[in-house]
Design a protein that fits this description.
- This protein is an alpha+beta fold.
- The strands form 3 sheets. Strands 3, 4, 5, 8 and 9 form a 5-stranded antiparallel β-sheet that branches. A two-stranded antiparallel ribbon has the order 1-2. Strands 6-7 form a two-stranded antiparallel ribbon.
- Strand 6 and strand 7 form a beta hairpin.
- The protein folds into 4 domains: 106 residues, Alpha Horseshoe (Serine Threonine Protein Phosphatase 5, Tetratricopeptide repeat), CATH 1.25.40.10; 65 residues; 83 residues, no CATH class; 86 residues, Chitinase A, domain 3.
- The longest helix is centred in the C-terminal third of the chain and has 30 residues.
Length: 402
């Protein structure tokens, strides 16, 4: 091989190497769609834009791509993985959330958000029905390890699962007060324990069938958790802000005096007009006290019901209240039947004194103030954030067309 040929071959090889290097450089600055100059910073900015617009699943894909390709330091990548875990938690994709949290933990074992991430790892495992793994994590992560009392006694054992007396007592204390009062006897408590154990067994069976992984179940759990957190948050705000004085309650009564008055009302008896009977005979029977009494008061402007759930219209109540005591109404037809009424007792409208309704007034005033505090708290929460609401409810015609 002569010298010129050798030089040509070497030049060709050098050109090939240069070309491969050029292609590699282009690829490193190209996105998945083939667009050039797609830097790591641009990908990260793009992912954050998608996240800010509510496109969480799409944002997660871009963050994943950033973590896979970026040359950023471990601490930054750990933070991105932690953010990814939170995105997947919001999407109820607990498997990917766990994978992201664990990757974050490997990249940065001691981040400032460690305690929060530990709790989310345990929560994700529980949502996946992996109770044993969740318990293991709980016991091995010092920042969320519960304090264990040595004097706890086992009340029930289900296989390897132990339920302590303290757990039973805590479950009873979480019940509404009216139900809790019904568990004062030993027999009632033993019945509750049996039912509690039965629900635990059935719950474990449901998890083995994978029912806890159904999307609607996961969303329901998250919604319930959100409601509990909001309830406690709002309760704390109400405790801080609510002030009810006797003077406030008295002023509220004066401003709403009419709503606490006793309306005009009557006690009545009735008889059904059977086919052969005449109105005069029914009227006489009513005067002789042979009518059937109605337990409730008949009030002006309100419908009422006969025994058996037969409803009487507002017009009938108004007609009855136009009568004096002992007065008998004209026949009232409801569907295929006719009825007549006699006024046994009648009371005129009267105002109730403050002391008579004090507790009711205070309850209603307190409820109104609580509602105002909650609304003010919600308004402030919205004002403190940059929130734009674009939701447009669909019209009835659009719903029908759909």
């Amino acid at each position: 091989m002569n010298r010129i040929v050798k030089i040509a071959i070497i030049a060709g090889i050098l050109l090939l190497i240069a070309g491969l290097f050029f292609v590699k450089e282009i690829a490193s600055h190209t996105d998945s769609s083939g667009n050039a100059s797609w830097t790591d910073k641009m990908r990260l900015d793009y992912a954050n834009v998608l996240l800010s617009k509510g496109l969480n699943a799409e944002a997660a894909q871009e963050f994943e791509a950033y973590v896979a390709r970026s040359r950023a330091d471990k601490k930054e990548l750990a933070g991105i993985c932690y953010k990814l875990g939170n995105i997947y938690l919001g999407l109820k994709d607990y498997e990917k959330a766990l994978a992201s949290f664990y990757k974050s933990e490997l990249l940065d074992p001691e981040p400032e958000y460690r305690q929060d991430m530990n709790q989310k790892i345990v929560s994700s495992l529980e949502n996946l029905g992996l109770s044993q793994q969740a318990q293991y994590e709980l016991e091995n992560r010092s920042s969320i390890k519960p304090s264990v009392r040595k004097d706890e006694k086992v009340a029930v054992r289900i296989g390897k699962r132990e339920i302590t007396n303290e757990e039973i007592d805590a479950a009873i204390n979480r019940l509404p007060e009216n139900i809790r009062k019904g568990l004062s006897s030993s027999d009632a408590k033993l019945k509750f324990v049996r039912e509690y154990v039965a629900t635990e067994v059935l719950y474990e069976k449901g998890k083995k069938l994978g029912l806890d992984k159904k999307p609607d179940i996961r969303y329901a759990v998250e919604d319930f958790k959100r409601q509990l957190v909001l309830r406690d948050l709002l309760s704390d705000e109400i405790r801080k802000e609510l002030r009810v004085t006797p003077e406030d309650v008295a002023l509220y009564y004066k401003a709403n005096k009419d709503s606490y008055s006793v309306p005009e009302r009557a006690r009545v008896s009735f008889l059904e007009i059977s086919a052969p009977a005449k109105e005069g005979d029914v009227s006489l029977a009513l005067k002789e006290g042979k009518g059937k009494k109605i337990g409730q008061w008949v009030e002006k402007g309100r419908p009422f019901f006969l025994p058996g759930g037969i409803g009487m219209p507002v017009e009938t109540a108004d007609a009855i209240l136009n009568l004096d005591k002992g007065g008998i109404s004209a026949p009232v037809k409801v569907k295929d039947n006719k009825y007549m009424f006699i006024v046994d007792q009648k009371e005129q409208r009267r105002e109730r004194e403050f002391q008579e309704v004090k507790e009711q007034v205070e309850r209603q005033y307190r409820a109104q103030k609580e509602q105002q505090i909650v609304q003010s708290f919600l308004d402030k929460a919205i004002e403190q954030q940059e929130i734009e609401i674009f939701y447009q409810p669909k019209t009835e015609n659009e719903e029908i067309a759909k």
